[in-house]
Amino acid sequence: MTLVEKIKKLCDENSETLASLEKKLHLGNATIRKWDRSAPSADRLAKVADFFSVSVDYLLGREKSKTEELDGVYFNFAKDAERNAIDPEDIKAAIDLIKKYKNK
Predict the structure, then answer these.
(1) Quick check: 21 and 51 in contact, CB under 8 A?
(2) Distance CA 53, CA 91 (A)
(3) Using CA atoms, how far apart are residues 33 and 40, in angstroms rounded to an integer?
(4) Taking CA atoms, which of 25, 29, 51, 77 is between 20 and 30 Å from 19?
(5) What are the pLDDT digits (tens) for 27-53?
(6) Is the pTM value of this prediction over 0.70?
(7) What is the CATH number of domain 3-60?
(8) What are the boundaries of each domain within the chain?
(9) Could you tell me which of 52, 43, 57, 67 has the C-alpha nearest to residue 18?
(10) What are phi and psi of 87, to 5 degrees?
């Protein structure tokens, strides 16, 4: 899967279009589509990764999973946070609580 295909898939999963993503990230029209022909700058690629809460390595195909592991618990931060309005601090507090009970 190419970089652009991966970004399109993320857009589909998050009810976005490439055009709306480009607008939200202050990128020019059709900028992302051009990445099939020329590599994006690191800062632009990082903007897309941050928007979807995935790593740049995931976008580049170096990681297979877009979920992240935090102390043995896997999260898809983009979907979980949007769907459930999970605050990252709440996630950390929950993990700390689990660790506390796990160690007893």
Answers:
(1) yes
(2) 15
(3) 10
(4) 77
(5) 999 999 999 999 999 999 999 999 998
(6) no
(7) 1.10.260.40
(8) 3-60, 68-102
(9) 52
(10) -80, 135
